Amino acid sequence: MKKILINGEEVQPAAADVVEVEPGVYSVLAGPNSFEARITNDEICVAGHTFSVEVEDPRQWKRSSHSTGAHGRVSIAAAMPGKVIRVLVAAGDEVAEGQGIVVVEAMKMQNELKAPRKGRVISVDVKADDSVKPGAVLVTIE
Amino acid sequence: MFSKVLIANRGEIALRVIRTLREMGIRSVAVFSDADRTALHVRKADEAAHIGAAPSAESYLNIDRILDAASRHRVEAIHPGYGFLSENARFAQACTDAGFTFIGPSAKSIAMMGSKTEARRVAQAGGAPIVPGTESGVGSAADATAFARDAGFPVMLKAVAGGGGKGMRRVDRMEDLQPAFEAASSEALRAFGDGSIYVEKLIEHARHVEIQVLGDQHGHMVHLGERECSVQRRHQKVIEESPSPLVSRMPGMREQMGEAAIRAARAAGYYNAGTVEFLAEESGRFYFLEMNTRLQVEHPVTELVTGLDLVRLQLEIAAGGQLPFTRDDVALNGAAIECRIYAEDPANNFFPSPGRITQLSEPAGPGVRLDSGIYPGWTVPLDYDPMLSKLIVWAGTREIAIERMLRALGEYHIGGIRTNIPLFQLILNDTAFRRGELHTGYLDELLKTADWSTNPPANLAAIAAQVASLNQTPERSIASAAVSRWLAAGREDLLG
After folding, report:
1. Å between A69 CA and nearest CA of chain B
2. Best residue in A1, A2, A11 to probe B by mutation, most B CBs within 10 Å?
3. Domain count along chain A
4. Are B468 and A40 an interchain contact pair (Cβ–Cβ within 8 Å)?
5. A55 has a chain B CB within 8 A of its CB
6. How far apart are CA B160 and CA B303, in angstroms?
7. Is A65 a member of any domain?
């Protein structure tokens, strides 16, 4: 079972209705109260308070079913400036959720970017050795 | 009136000018460096001209490149904004010589007020009270010592060519004078190409109060009340407000300061918008500090309490128009406060925090004005001042304006970088600030005891845990989130 550390301490999640209303922005209904939560990098901001978040086993993380639609296009983008090491898919490939798509090196660390859900690769916008800027779209899945 | 104007600036002030130009049916020309191809002012202008590499000296400070862009785009006038070339007399003259109207005062007035010692002479000749100090730049620390012995400590060393807090040093003891003089002089030399330093008596616990003046080229001049800018850090303004809590409770002080400001400006043959800065004591005594010969960063607080558009008035004056009102027509209504939002981390010694803005949620609603130069997906460049935006509120009273500002700050979320929003929340909740008990050392004192550690309620931590448990890896959601917002913004633009 995953463990969630908030500001370095394990915290039991509250029973709450959580809906992603904008990318990275969550509407949270807990009891009678309404909160807005925002996720940026490894922090969550709730009602003006910012918490650092660690999850003991990130592989256990699952996206909630309502967070992203199962249909439509989704782009995989670079989160920071870096260099493309390998592209693991080609346009037209069917990919499964969690399948590795692109390996990007940033700040001397290689990161494998994975498919956020299953789908078909409709475009590959980079090749090995390309330098990419933050926000650059690498691969688009439909 | 002009049909096309170039803005020799970037960021929020370029946007600010573009907005008024559009309201007046005047085409706007933005300029941009290599670092600013995707900046908001370029997106929002009618035309845009590339003027060079990222370093300011090769772009926003390069007179030839800017005049070349003005020629290519066939503009009639140039608005300098603030900072960069706005108080450069050579630039104002070069604009005129090249056949463009400089939207500001004459090059001569800029030169007079640009020298701090010359400005003091002009202001004194015009009858404005000045802080005791040396008549001109002193050549050596020994001359500074002679002044300090007579006037008594503490004293302030200031760059003759100065501005923005550069080349300024407070000196409390004779033995500190020599090293402080050398440090201030070399700092001034680096910043302004002129290491001259003059010495002033330091007025302790003084407030910074400034008067907005506006004059046309036909000899009419009015003042538009004051702004108090006592909340400063390292001689840089952090919060500005109008009216000043001090001036509001001292009968007659506003008119006295206004008259002194107009006299100083008239002595310099001034026209267009300008600001005369004073130090003010609790007794109501005030001293001329300097004159800023441009539109100020904090001009919106004056706009909100007067209901005027200062950029529109600047354009009308530059085009040869007469001031459309007299002092009696200008009423000051309610209270306005401005916070300068910077990409810096107050909890980490105000370390700059450039980077990509991954999320943006902006305040709105009653009495809120946001002059911003940012958008989600944009990377704050390292090359320029890290000011992101100015949040300004208006309300019927200062008390309500403070509550409104806190409400607006609570709605403001800039993700991906650190900002000084927590600093404003600290100040606006501080008892002394709320009582209007301010002086230029106020913020340093407050920061000495500031506690940035927060003890958020346990229920919020549990909610954060619940959100985290449902979210996938944060990094990935950020990247895709920012891009989808970015694409959405692009689509909005295409659809107009």
Report:
1. 13
2. A11
3. 2
4. no
5. yes
6. 31
7. no
Q: Which residues in chain A (89-108) have CB-CB distances under 8 A to chain B?
A: none
In a domain, residue A89? The reply is yes
Q: Are residues A53 and A26 in the same domain?
A: yes
Query: Which chain B residue has the Cα nearest residue A62?
Result: B472
A84 with A123, same domain: the answer is: yes
The verdict on A56 and A97 lying in the same domain is no
Q: Does A3 contact chain B (CB < 8 Å)? A: no
User: Does A35 fall in a domain?
Assistant: yes
Cα→Cα distances B205→A120, A133, B385, B445, B470, Å: 68, 48, 28, 11, 53
Residues A82 and A128 in one domain: yes
Q: Is the ipTM reported for this complex over the cut 0.90? A: no
Q: Is A33 found in the same domain as A9?
A: yes
Q: Which domain range does residue A8 map to?
A: 4-60
Query: Shortest CA distance to B47 belongs to which of B63, B64, B69?
Result: B69
Distance CA B307, CA A59 (A): 57
Residues in B closer than 8 angstroms to A116, CB to CB, are: 472, 476, 480
pLDDT of B15-38, one tens digit each?
999 999 999 999 999 999 999 999
| CA–CA separation, B32 and B14 (whole Å) | 11
- Rounded Cα distance, B480 and B396, in Å: 43
DSSP B6-37: EE---HHHHHHHHHHHHHTT-EEEEEEEGGGT
Tell me whether residue A67 is in a domain.
no
Residue with tokens 């619940």: B466
Whether the bond into B154 is cis, omega within 30 of 0: yes
Q: How far apart are CA B209 and CA B14, in angstroms?
A: 26
DSSP 8-state assignment for residue B224: E
**Same domain assignment for residues A97 and A123:** yes
Q: What is the CATH number of the domain that holds A127?
A: 2.40.50.100
Domain boundary among A60, A89, A104: A60
Catalytic residues of B: 294
CA distance A24 to chain B (A): 6
User: What band does A60 get if pLDDT is binned at 50, 70 and 90?
Assistant: very low
- Map residue A42 onto helix, strand or coil: coil
B421-428 and B398-411 helices, crossing angle to 10°:
150
Chain segment B125-168, per-residue pLDDT in tens: 888 899 888 877 887 888 888 888 888 899 999 888 876 677 88
Go through chain B and tell me how many residues it has: 496
